[in-house]
Amino acid sequence: AQKITQTQPGMFVQEKEAVTLDCTYDTSDPSYGLFWYKQPSSGEMIFLIYQGSYDQQNATEGRYSLNFQKARKSANLVISASQLGDSAMYFCAMREGDAGGTSYGKLTFGQGTILTVHP
Amino acid sequence: DAGVTQSPTHLIKTRGQQVTLRCSPKSGHDTVSWYQQALGQGPQFIFQYYEEEERQRGNFPDRFSGHQFPNYSSELNVNALLLGDSALYLCASSFKVRLGEYFGPGTRLTVL
After folding, report:
1. Is A85 helix (H, G, I), strand (E, B) or coil?
2. Using CA atoms, how far apart are residues B64 and B48, in angstroms rounded to an integer?
3. Around Cβ B59, how many Cβ atoms within 10 Å?
4. I need a labelling partner for B1 at 20 to 30 A (CA). Which of A13, A77, B83, B102 fits?
5. What whole-number distance in Å separates Cα of residue A35 and Cα of residue A97?
6. Are the CB atoms for B42 and A91 separated by under 8 Å?
7. Do A109 and A2 contact (CB within 8 A), yes or no?
């Protein structure tokens, strides 16, 4: 069964510094997709970044990058130049059977990491 | 371009009652998924609808049922409400996985 583990309940970072949020996953399916979402206190989940299991390069989206280490089954999110507005809950998620072009199947989420950015 | 919309925003029910939550997907999206998020937890997958059919279901009892309409909007119905059903219910729509699933603002259900 697929499983996502986020071991950091909370993280603190100074404004303008970089921060890494950890995520490890477990699956027996060679085809899968990994996602990071941001959930502000308002409750809406905001999609940040996606990495497919067959992708050769780490995904990047603006200030967000995904450090994908397939052999270690880790998919850490790196936020560069943190901003006060980055303070939120961050979730790592996985979808098995991801063919890189379909959206079939459930997302399995981790427990989340609360990020607090200090001025 | 409107994103995913959900109604109502908040809802208070008592044990044993039934509730219907509604979701309109983002324009151009044909797949709708529902998630339950308890306080302080990650969302849990309830089910996914595509072409008006339930395509996949999570580990939720039959009290949880759904429907998708021809215009891709969807409803989540919960019968015989329990205190443990109190949660934020999130609807997500999608078309291409690399674009991610777009989530609505959620419906906060409180069961007393």
Report:
1. helix
2. 12
3. 7
4. A77
5. 14
6. yes
7. no
Q: Are B60 and B45 in contact (CB under 8 A)?
A: no
Q: Taking CB atoms and an 8 Å limit, are A43 and B94 in contact across chains? A: no
Q: Distances from the Cα of B33 to the Cαs of B47, B57, B74, in angstroms?
A: 6, 10, 9
Give chain B positions within 8 Å (CB) of A111.
Answer: 41-42
Distance from the Cα of B81 to chain A's closest Cα (Å) equals 22
Rounded average pLDDT per 10-residue block, chain B, 112 residues: 90 97 93 94 95 93 97 97 97 77 94 96
Flag residues of chain A having pLDDT under 50: none
Element (H, E) at A67: strand A64-69
Q: How do beta strands B19-24 and B74-78 pair?
A: antiparallel
Measure the CA dihedral B103/A34/B40/B62, to 10°. 70
Residues A96/A98/A102/A105 CA torsion (nearest 10 deg):
0
Residues of chain B contacting residue A95, judged by C-beta atoms under 8 Å apart: 97
Which member of A48, A103, A111 has the closest CB to residue B42?
Answer: A111
